[in-house]
Amino acid sequence: MMASRHQDGSAGDANYGVIGTNYAKYRQPDPHIAAFIQAALGDARSVLNVGAGAGSYEPVDRAVTAVEPSASMRAQRPVHLPAAIDATGEKLPFADGSFDACMATFTVHQWSDLAAGLAEMRRVTRGPVLILTADPDELDRFWLVDYAPEVIAVEARRYPQIATISEGLGGNAKVIPVPIPLHCTDGFGEAYYGRPERLLEPGARLANSAWSFVDASIGDRFAFDLGRDLKDGTWDAKYGHLRAQPEFEGSLKLIVGRRS
């Protein structure tokens, strides 16, 4: 979250003063996804987390500094994590090379100046810079496109191209696909690929910022149509196999940029 601020301090395009109220209830870090981040961090001891939110995926076995402009999100950070600094990624208040590694999870699509934020992350980091994000070209793999194509279209416009992020980190970047587990505890949209009933919960949709960019009528239509199709078996006839599929190869990617 970056740039022009909302009332609660949120920066970027999403107002977390509104949508972040019960965010931590639905967006708990998933151990499977966390393992990819831990592996990419390697032996880094000091880590900067940019757009840290409520602290998902922050490693507890390293010295972490968190940056988060939203007061609502800072207030939801659990007590075992360090308090977050009120700042944005565009202007990180740290000297060059201050950290062994830097990370940003589910946040770059909200930044108003991606290039500036990536450059700042690279500037303050001696080692790897990790970006957990979605590939906008692969969002339509998710069945939600059948029910709320407007939401998929919004996300595709918001998420930066993977190549753009890689270039912003200096070009020496590796793109790692991250399969999504069936019982993923981090409730971003695709986390419910095999549990469609969960997306009928308004709170689950609210914890996904894309829904705040479409008219409320779309959410109402989605809930009606999906509820009907679950009741009469239409959804299961087409997608029921996903209920037992251990992983889903969706749009989730981990980009790891290293100094040349």
Automatic annotation (TrEMBL):
<dbReference type="InterPro" id="IPR013216">
    <property type="entry name" value="Methyltransf_11"/>
</dbReference>
<keyword id="KW-0489">Methyltransferase</keyword>
<protein>
    <submittedName>
        <fullName>SAM-dependent methyltransferase</fullName>
    </submittedName>
</protein>
<keyword id="KW-0808">Transferase</keyword>
<dbReference type="Pfam" id="PF08241">
    <property type="entry name" value="Methyltransf_11"/>
</dbReference>
<feature type="domain" description="Methyltransferase type 11">
    <location>
        <begin position="48"/>
        <end position="126"/>
    </location>
</feature>
<dbReference type="InterPro" id="IPR029063">
    <property type="entry name" value="SAM-dependent_MTases_sf"/>
</dbReference>
<dbReference type="GO" id="GO:0008757">
    <property type="term" value="F:S-adenosylmethionine-dependent methyltransferase activity"/>
</dbReference>
<dbReference type="GO" id="GO:0032259">
    <property type="term" value="P:methylation"/>
</dbReference>
